[in-house]
Structures are given as C-alpha cells and as structure tokens.
C-alpha cells in the first residue's frame, strides 16, 4: 500500500513529503497536521502556510534528516520566530546554529534592557491622570525636570546645575578638612589650660599627639566654606522636597537607594549645623560629641550624588549595567581571590616560620597576600627566606592572572552594551531627523485653477514630501 503524501504550500511554493516523515516529531505543528487543521485548504486539497518558503526548506529538512540547520545569513530573531511558529524546540538546533541562536537572544535581551533603561521612565504619571487633573500635569513637569534629563532642554540644564552644586559640595567637604581653610577658635596654650583645669570629658580624652583631633577640637571651617555648605544644604533640601512631592508613586520613592542617601544627608547636614551653633553645649556633652561625629561621617555619602547623573551621561549608566551583567563572574573571581589569599598566607607563614621578625600569624599573611596579588606592595611586611621569596614570586604572578580575568569580562560586557547603545542612539537620531524633515517639507500647494475650468471645480494639488 502506497504511503500517504502530504502537500504543503508555503508562501506560494508547493512542497510534498510523506506522512511518516512528519510523524517523527509529533509534538510539532507539522507533526499534528490533519484535515481538521485551520491551515488545511479544501479547495486546493493542501495545507497552506503564509510563511517564507526559503526558510521552510530548513524546517522540512529537520523531519527528513533529523538535524536542524539554518543558513548563516539569517537573523537570529527570524530563526526564533520560525521555531515558535512551527513549535520546534530550540534544542533540536545543530551546534553550529545554536550558538547563533543564543547570541541573537542575548543581543535582543541587551537591546530590550537598553531601551527600557533609556527610553522609558521608571516612574511616571499615567495619561489618564494627566488628562483629568491640571495639578498632576504640573507635578509631572516638575518630576521630569528633576528626574529625567532627556525630557527637555530645561531638565538637562537643571541637571548640569545640579552637577555644579554637587561639585561645590564635594570641594567644600574636602577643603574643610585642611588646616589652611579652618579658623582657629582655641589657641594651643588655652587648650592645655582647659585640659589641666576643667573636667570636660571631650578635652580630657583629646589626644594631643593626634593633629586631626586637635584640629577638630580647636577650629572650625572658615566662613566662606560654611556659607557654601549652607547654600548646598538649602538647595538639596528643596530639591528633595520637590522630588518627593512630585513623585507619582510616593510609596516607591524611598525604595531607590539614592533617595534614601539624599534623606540621610539632608538630616545629617541640618543636625550638624544645629549642633555647631552652640559649641559650649557640644563640647561639654561627650555623648553629643560622639553623635556629632557620626553625623559628620555621613557627609562622605554626598559623593554618591554623582550617580544621580547616570541619566545624563549614558556611559556612566552603561558602566553600572556592565557591572550588574558581570556580577556572577565577579563574585566567582572574588571567591577565587579569597581562596588564593588564604592559600598563599598559609604558605608564607610556614615558609617564614624560623624568621623571628616576619609574619607572626596567618592573618598578617592574608594582608600580605592581598597587597602582593593586587600589586600594591606597601613593603610593611615582606619575606626574608629563600623559600619565602619563591612563595612571594608565585603569589605576585598569580595575582596578575586572577585580576586580569575580571577586567576582560567587564571590558567585554561594557563594549557590547556601549556599541548597542550607540546603535540605539543613532537610530533614535535618524528617526528624529526624519520626523523633522517630514514636518518641514510638508508642502501644501495652493489651489491651482486651469485657464479654462469649463464650470468645473478648481483642482487642488497636495504634495507630501
């Protein structure tokens, strides 16, 4: 008995194959074909699929040969769409094509992530809210001004001003720690007098051999730095308040780490400012001094405000995205680095066991191995025996190899995301240019009346360029 022949029409091109051939993969679309299928054409007595016939050749070869291969010129996305339509598992792809398929899927995920990061606002008001409420429209303008630099030229200008204030804040923070920019409030002799004849705990515990403690206890930043700090404090306070008031979803506002840091900084700045207004109360209450120092140490967090400008500079945001993409690899390499540190610390401890003045314990060996593998080499601890020199050389060489790997991974991910973002920006600019060109070249030619209209309506010519 002759075996049944199935006729399949794909995009106007006819194919014929045996029923047993398609039955090799019964879980696929072709493997389940029957005359009750929606693809069956009763008039032509065949199955019709409006797909690319050139690609279908590769699909049909899977049933004939048991191996699925696609031409190298095909885009990975097309391969993915075809596999989904024909309900074929990607696991049936040949090894040579499977790599292309995975690369395409990774590229699409990266492109989708970049588009969501740069072209979609994380928090925003809905169209319905803006349409029904004038207040919401105003709040949205304020929110985009503060949150999205790409939303308008005014927003970009504000973010540049914000960057300037952040730089001023960081500069005043650094200058305030230098003696040249501080005003002396107590002389050294008067400080000795207070220490000798008063029972103030702050001065009693002051270490006169530590110039940093003496500077903190006897001086304040000069007036210009204090004025700059007040200005930056007022600016950041107003900015945070407007940021919170205009936020579309206030319950999610403090789920962002940078907003939490801003709140801590504003609180720390005003608390320290208030404490500095009454120095007598401050120095006579030791617990208040400790609290003041804790608040003052939070000023270091102001450096994180630079990351608020990630939305203004795409390169900075891509760098953060590259670190996130490489996080698993970096954690694995960090674990390898830690194990190598313990390994060389143990070796150097026993290599220098009979040397009396080096490596008293393995903890010091860990410090030495970290410094050596990172090629810092402080020189505070070093081997002195022949075997110790050998361990030190191997430790330094291993450190270079271990540290080279994360650099390569980060560089690869950064370059990949950077190139894709460049293509995205070029496409965005091209679409904008095309849109502007269509607006400027949209010519409406005036009504043209022929010399002899013969009572007919004048012709109107409209050209769209």
Layout: helices, strands, pairs:
Elements: E1 5-10, E2 13-18, H1 19-22, E3 40-41, E4 46-49, H2 53-65, H3 76-85, H4 95-119, H5 127-132, H6 134-147, H7 153-175, E5 182-184, H8 188-197, H9 201-204, H10 211-218, E6 219-221, H11 223-245, H12 257-276, H13 279-284, H14 286-297, H15 314-325, H16 327-351, H17 362-373, H18 386-440
Parallel strand pairs: 1-4
Antiparallel strand pairs: 1-2, 3-4, 5-6
Protein model, in words:
- With 465 residues, this protein is mainly alpha-helical.
- It has helices at residues 19-22, 53-65, 76-85, 95-119, 127-132, 134-147, 153-175, 188-197, 201-204, 211-218, 223-245, 257-276, 279-284, 286-297, 314-325, 327-351, 362-373, 386-440, and strands at 5-10, 13-18, 40-41, 46-49, 182-184, 219-221.
- The strands form 2 sheets. It has a 4-stranded mixed β-sheet. A two-stranded antiparallel ribbon has the order 5-6.
- The longest helix is centred in the last third of the chain and has 55 residues, at 386-440.
- The radius of gyration is 36 Å and the shape is flat.
- It starts with a strand and ends in a 25-residue tail after the last helix.
């Amino acid at each position: 008995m002759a075996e049944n022949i199935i006729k399949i029409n794909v995009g106007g091109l006819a194919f014929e194959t045996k029923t047993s051939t398609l039955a090799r993969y019964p879980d696929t679309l072709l493997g389940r074909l029957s005359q009750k299928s929606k693809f069956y054409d009763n008039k032509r007595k065949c199955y019709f699929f409006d797909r690319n016939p050139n690609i279908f050749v590769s699909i049909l070869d899977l049933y004939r040969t048991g191996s699925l291969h696609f031409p190298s010129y095909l885009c990975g996305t097309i391969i993915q769409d075809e596999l989904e339509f024909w309900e074929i598992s990607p696991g049936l792809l040949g090894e040579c094509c499977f790599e292309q398929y995975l690369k395409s899927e990774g590229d699409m995920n990266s492109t989708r992530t970049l588009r969501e990061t740069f072209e979609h606002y994380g928090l925003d008001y809905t169209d319905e809210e803006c349409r029904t409420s004038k207040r919401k429209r105003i709040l949205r303008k304020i929110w985009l001004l503060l949150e999205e630099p790409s939303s308008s030229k005014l927003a970009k200008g504000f973010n540049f001003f914000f960057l300037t204030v952040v730089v001023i804040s960081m500069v005043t923070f650094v200058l305030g720690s230098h003696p040249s920019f501080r005003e002396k409030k107590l002389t050294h002799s008067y400080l000795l007098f207070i220490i000798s004849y008063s029972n103030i705990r702050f001065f009693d515990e002051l270490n006169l051999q530590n110039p940093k403690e003496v500077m903190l206890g006897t001086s304040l930043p000069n007036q210009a730095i204090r004025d700059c700090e007040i200005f930056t404090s007022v600016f950041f306070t107003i900015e945070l308040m407007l940021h919170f008031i205009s936020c579309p979803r206030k319950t999610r506002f403090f789920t962002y780490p940078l907003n939490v840091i801003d709140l801590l900084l504003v609180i720390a700045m005003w608390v320290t400012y208030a404490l500095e207004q009454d120095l007598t109360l401050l120095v006579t209450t030791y617990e208040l001094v400790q609290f003041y120092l804790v608040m003052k140490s939070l000023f270091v967090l102001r450096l994180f405000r630079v990351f608020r400008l990630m939305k203004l500079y795409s390169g900075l945001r891509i760098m953060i995205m590259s670190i996130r993409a490489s996080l698993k690899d970096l954690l694995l390499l960090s674990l390898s680095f830690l194990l190598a540190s313990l390994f060389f610390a143990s070796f150097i401890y026993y290599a220098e066991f009979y040397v009396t003045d080096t490596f008293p314990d393995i903890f010091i060996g860990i410090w030495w191995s970290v410094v050596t593998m990172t090629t810092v080499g402080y020189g505070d601890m070093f081997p002195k025996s022949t075997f110790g020199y050998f361990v030190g050389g191997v430790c330094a060489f291993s450190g270079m190899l271990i540290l080279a790997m994360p650099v390569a991974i980060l560089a690869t991910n950064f370059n990949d995301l950077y190139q894709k973002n460049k293509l995205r920006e070029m496409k965005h600019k091209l679409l904008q240019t095309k849109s502007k060109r269509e607006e400027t070249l949209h010519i409406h030619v005036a009504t043209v009346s022929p010399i002899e209209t013969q009572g007919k309506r004048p012709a109107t010519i409209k050209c769209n360029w």
